[in-house]
From TrEMBL:
SUPFAM superfamilies: Homeodomain-like. It holds the Pfam family TetR_N. The keyword Protein biosynthesis does not apply. This is Putative TetR family transcriptional regulator. GO terms for molecular function: DNA-binding transcription factor activity; transcription cis-regulatory region binding. The lineage of its organism: Bacteria, Bacillati, Actinomycetota, Actinomycetes, Mycobacteriales. Residues 37-56 bind DNA. Residues 14-74 form the HTH tetR-type domain. It comes from the Bacteria.
Length: 196
């Protein structure tokens, strides 16, 4: 019975997160970013301001559908072992970057809003930096100093691969098996070999 209660609670939490995000997007699209205050978003979502802040720390996060990143520690296993370390590193970065998104988003709408609203770009940048710092901390905890330095360098290259792949196909956020991601890994692998 406990699992059912926990499952219900999680489902209700996910529904409330989604409702707040959808209300924030609708307000920004209908009335503009300035009019999308926390109070107005909460009102449209049918929640109190206190509830809003239990789910999102800022209105920017509500619009982005974003929250703190997480590191899938199991993805760090084998990062420095075996073949295709660049692909592994890129997938680790992808997993951490994707974890920032806490709700389903209409990606073309979200991208258009981020492009047109400087505050959303700035907040997205803050999430990017925080996720990189979180990943660097996880690497330093997981590996000894030499391996942590190597893993950090590898993940930094993986981050560049992911950024390049995003320019080819912005929908890679939802698809770690995207052909654009595979093509970007191959291009970087070839380019790095040519540099040596």
């Amino acid at each position: 019975m406990q699992e059912t209660h926990g499952g219900l609670r999680e489902r209700q939490r996910a529904e409330t997160l989604q409702r707040i995000h959808d209300a924030a997007i609708d307000l920004v699209r209908d009335e503009g970013f300035t009019a999308a205050t926390v109070a107005n978003i909460a009102d449209r979502a049918g929640v109190s301001r206190r509830t809003f802040f239990n789910y999102f720390p800022t209105k920017e996060d509500a619009v982005l559908g974003a929250g703190p990143a997480t590191v899938p520690f199991e993805a760090l296993d084998g990062l420095l072992d075996g073949p295709d370390q660049l692909k592994k590193a890129t997938l680790v970065v992808h997993a951490v970057a994707s974890s920032v998104r806490h709700v389903r988003t209409d990606e073309p709408v979200r991208r258009a809003l981020v492009k047109s609203i400087p505050e959303l770009r700035a907040r997205g940048g803050q999430h990017h930096i925080a996720s990189q710092e979180l990943l660097a901390e996880a690497l330093s905890e997981r590996f000894d100093a030499d391996d942590a330095a190597r893993a950090t360098a590898l993940v930094m290259v993986g981050s560049a691969v992911l950024r390049y792949a995003y320019t080819l196909d912005p929908d890679i956020v939802d698809d770690p098996d995207s052909p654009a991601l595979t093509a970007a890994v191959e291009l970087f692998r070839t380019t790095l070999k040519d540099l040596t």
